[in-house]
């Protein structure tokens, strides 16, 4: 699904982008973003999931954040945003407090997301609505926040493979056509195959980022010594200039 | 991990905190250096998004003095390398980020900043 979301994001080919992964969970999408050469920030409300993402050693920055509280990113920070199976959670009221009603949460989410994205750009949010009313509520609030675009449904007639994507546009509203959903009865996952086949055809070859090594101890010691020599007071004295892998401890 | 590329985009999002809420100030931080693959086009493309003074101040606070106070007009390889290092290879692992306006403390633990707000802080 991440591959399909990236396809719908329609980023310029072969350029690494700076992306937001909304509800990054354990870093499954993040691994794919890494592999595609993108830089990214992932936010998730579940510390246990972020812990798994740390163990996975993904490259993105991980934030403990409740998307219903809104984002604090400056205007135009990201080249795009993706979200896999997350935003339906915004439809649940977290507490009885008025700020946590679904319309409030959705409004803060879409307003601050819209502002955090560059103009033009896209956000592709795959989610699981339980009714058409839910789709209606979500799209109307997204529109009020300034987004164009609409809903893309892949395999609408397949119970198993049906997927709903909210494909939102920032800027150049009318110029962008909402992409067509995939048709037929294909099984889930064929979207990935299509995307990869297209990449192969276009001859895009990305470096295998995951295989690269962590910088040698020598390099780090050199940097450490350099910082020491400068003797700056502000150098954090408890810095861990080590090449070791991080431990996931919460 | 909080890299400076992300720190440079991050303002406080607490209720009513809309001015003087950037950049968040690092406090009691420890950092790790981790290699990242240099992509000159990405760095060049990202330049217009950077708040330069905030980046230079943050880098210096973390001990890196390679960046000039003013963003140079000519971008050479040396500069790109240094900027790449500051943006993507310095990871803040522990400590906190503090809002210069409302003093909200975003604690960073095990590389992950806690951006959760209390009920009364939600806009
Ligand atoms: Zn603040």
From TrEMBL, chain A:
<dbReference type="InterPro" id="IPR029063">
    <property type="entry name" value="SAM-dependent_MTases_sf"/>
</dbReference>
<dbReference type="GO" id="GO:0005730">
    <property type="term" value="C:nucleolus"/>
</dbReference>
<keyword id="KW-0949">S-adenosyl-L-methionine</keyword>
<protein>
    <recommendedName>
        <fullName>18S rRNA (guanine(1575)-N(7))-methyltransferase Bud23 C-terminal domain-containing protein</fullName>
    </recommendedName>
</protein>
<keyword id="KW-0539">Nucleus</keyword>
<dbReference type="InterPro" id="IPR022238">
    <property type="entry name" value="Bud23_C"/>
</dbReference>
<dbReference type="GO" id="GO:0070476">
    <property type="term" value="P:rRNA (guanine-N7)-methylation"/>
</dbReference>
<dbReference type="InterPro" id="IPR013216">
    <property type="entry name" value="Methyltransf_11"/>
</dbReference>
<feature type="region of interest" description="Disordered">
    <location>
        <begin position="179"/>
        <end position="216"/>
    </location>
</feature>
<dbReference type="GO" id="GO:0016435">
    <property type="term" value="F:rRNA (guanine) methyltransferase activity"/>
</dbReference>
<keyword id="KW-0808">Transferase</keyword>
<comment type="similarity">
    <text>Belongs to the class I-like SAM-binding methyltransferase superfamily. BUD23/WBSCR22 family.</text>
</comment>
<dbReference type="Pfam" id="PF08241">
    <property type="entry name" value="Methyltransf_11"/>
</dbReference>
<dbReference type="Pfam" id="PF12589">
    <property type="entry name" value="WBS_methylT"/>
</dbReference>
<feature type="domain" description="Methyltransferase type 11">
    <location>
        <begin position="20"/>
        <end position="93"/>
    </location>
</feature>
<feature type="compositionally biased region" description="Basic and acidic residues">
    <location>
        <begin position="195"/>
        <end position="206"/>
    </location>
</feature>
<feature type="domain" description="18S rRNA (guanine(1575)-N(7))-methyltransferase Bud23 C-terminal">
    <location>
        <begin position="168"/>
        <end position="248"/>
    </location>
</feature>
<keyword id="KW-0963">Cytoplasm</keyword>
<dbReference type="GO" id="GO:0005737">
    <property type="term" value="C:cytoplasm"/>
</dbReference>
<keyword id="KW-0489">Methyltransferase</keyword>
<dbReference type="InterPro" id="IPR039769">
    <property type="entry name" value="Bud23-like"/>
</dbReference>
<feature type="region of interest" description="Disordered">
    <location>
        <begin position="229"/>
        <end position="250"/>
    </location>
</feature>
TrEMBL record, chain B:
<dbReference type="GO" id="GO:0046982">
    <property type="term" value="F:protein heterodimerization activity"/>
</dbReference>
<comment type="similarity">
    <text>Belongs to the TRM112 family.</text>
</comment>
<dbReference type="GO" id="GO:0070476">
    <property type="term" value="P:rRNA (guanine-N7)-methylation"/>
</dbReference>
<dbReference type="Pfam" id="PF03966">
    <property type="entry name" value="Trm112p"/>
</dbReference>
<dbReference type="InterPro" id="IPR005651">
    <property type="entry name" value="Trm112-like"/>
</dbReference>
<protein>
    <recommendedName>
        <fullName>Trm112p-domain-containing protein</fullName>
    </recommendedName>
</protein>
<dbReference type="InterPro" id="IPR039127">
    <property type="entry name" value="Trm112"/>
</dbReference>
<dbReference type="GO" id="GO:0030488">
    <property type="term" value="P:tRNA methylation"/>
</dbReference>
<comment type="subunit">
    <text>Interacts with TRM9.</text>
</comment>
